[in-house]
Amino acid sequence: MIRRLAAVFESLAMVFLAGVLTTVTLQVFFRYVAGIVAPWTEEATRYLGIWMVFMGATAAMAQGSHIAVTVLVERLPEWIQAVIRRLSWTLLLLFSGIVLLGSLQLIRLNWEQQAVTFPVSVAALYLALVVFSGTSLLLLVALLWRGSEAQR
Q1: What are phi and psi of 121, to 5 degrees?
Q2: Cα–Cα distance, 114 to 122 (Å, whole number)
Q3: What is the Cα Rg of the chain in Å?
Q4: How far is it, in rounded angstroms, from Cα 144 to Cα 142?
Q5: Does the predicted model carry a pTM greater than 0.90?
Q6: DSSP letter at 119?
Q7: What is the C-alpha separation between 50 and 56, in angstroms, rounded?
Q8: Is residue 50's pLDDT more than 90?
Q9: Burial class (CB in 10 A: 0-12, 13-18, 19+), 126
Q10: Which of 149, 147, 151, 137 lies closest to 86, judged by CA?
Q11: Range of 117's domain?
Q12: CB 48 within 8 Å of CB 23
């Protein structure tokens, strides 16, 4: 199930990447070919980019492929590695919980505020954090519950 979840979020990140590439291409076309300033392209690119990053981070969390410096941990006995792995998952669980609560508060505070160039709430930016931290919480609970085989 975790592999399927990773594939879904990886696909979502690719969709948002395509959106970023499209809006940047449109921005260049409008500005240098058509001679028109289209300010919505810059803001849309920012929104799409934020969503792309957090969907990719969620996929990386599910795949266990975030950047890690393991040169010292790999030299330790396996049982100590397992303890360190569970400790890091627990710390990530706490961090994800804090991010989730903070992002929910930011959504509540910014719900009425609209983007400058198109009719989307600024809360849409913080919603990406909710998706990331909420999914991370679920993944980390699964990892802690099932242990290291959950990530394979």
Answers
A1: -70, 145
A2: 6
A3: 19
A4: 5
A5: no
A6: S
A7: 10
A8: yes
A9: buried
A10: 147
A11: 2-151
A12: yes
**Which residue's entry shows tokens 């505020």?**
113
User: What CA–CA distance (Å, rounded) separates 36 from 45?
Assistant: 17
Token digits of residue 28: 């260049």
How would DSSP label each residue in 8-64? Answer: HHHHHHHHHHHHHHHHHHHHHIIIIIS----THHHHHHHHHHHHHHHHHHHHHHHHT
| Structural domains counted in the chain | 1
What is the overall mean pLDDT for the chain? 90
Q: Count other Cβ atoms within 10 Å, centred on residue 98.
A: 11
Confidence of residue 2 (pLDDT cuts 50, 70, 90): confident
CA diameter of the chain:
64
Q: How many residues would you count in the chain?
A: 152
Mean pLDDT of 63-84: 86
82 token code pair: 């397992």
